[in-house]
Amino acid sequence: MVGGVVLAHLALLGRWAEPGPTTGARPPAAATSVRTIPLVARPAPAAGGAVADVTAGAAAAVPSAEPAVARLAPGGVAPAEPSVTTTREPAAEPAPATAPSAAGADVPLYASLLPPPFEALFSLRRGAGAGRAHWRFATSGEAYELALQTQMPGRDSGHLRSEGRTGPWGLEPARFVEGRRGRDQRAVNFQRDAAGGGRIGFSGPSLELPLPPGVQDRLGWLLQLAAILEAEPALRQPGAEVSMWVVGPRGDADVWVFQVAGIEPAAGEAPALLALHREPRRPWDTAVRVWLDPQARHLPWRAVWRTQGPAGDAGGGVELQRESLAWR
Predict the structure, then answer these.
(1) How do strand 216-217 and strand 241-247 relate by DSSP bridges?
(2) Whole-number Å distance between alpha carbons of 121 and 132
């Protein structure tokens, strides 16, 4: 995986409790299907699209701030007229000019079993710095909101937020934003009812992408991964793989493939955890390691993001370690 440090974390109330009813109906496990989605950029509409205010100089300090995976260049397409003035940050590291073609790449749709609403508190490390992160999942009918807020001493607070609805295949994001100091700065809009088929638009890059089924944003993928592993016991076996499209706010999109390493023995007070990893596919791509908790609906116990440079690890990365979890 493949970027900000967030508002003062909310103190978590309550304690561990037995999980309540799941959100949304679980489809039959046998209903998994496979579709091929060609990923081709096209110009964004000239006006009328939802565009978030983007301010200059945003400091990357949360997991979304990892350097973007492949950048999708418009390829000669004339840029749309923005509805607001935007300022893009310079890239911290070089990135490929275009994303790999999706032609021939089969990305499955998986059964999923989302958890009930929850709040979790994590310790946060970014390089040599340490802080806290608060992760919240809330639902109302089919609507959901997933938010991550982080704070590190001496740095600006940051946030990530994913909003949308839950469906038979899990999370269906409608909008993803990242920002700092309580202000949204970059956004991704998942336009599922767009004319001619679903489209993905951005507040910064003047391009659009087709919206493939099962696509996730840079926050929702972690909850979606847990929901898939909770619903599909066969995918918990060593060597099994889970694939999904992941889209970031800088116009980046790629298929993330997670391979299951298996159950790792408990360390200290930690439960036995299901370990998965995502290997980078090119320079400046993102390596991801996650350890999911089978005793807590496979929600993450620990997660690590690191950027892979041409000669190896190019940064200190971001690490989350869960401290508490409360079902809401």
Answers:
(1) parallel
(2) 7
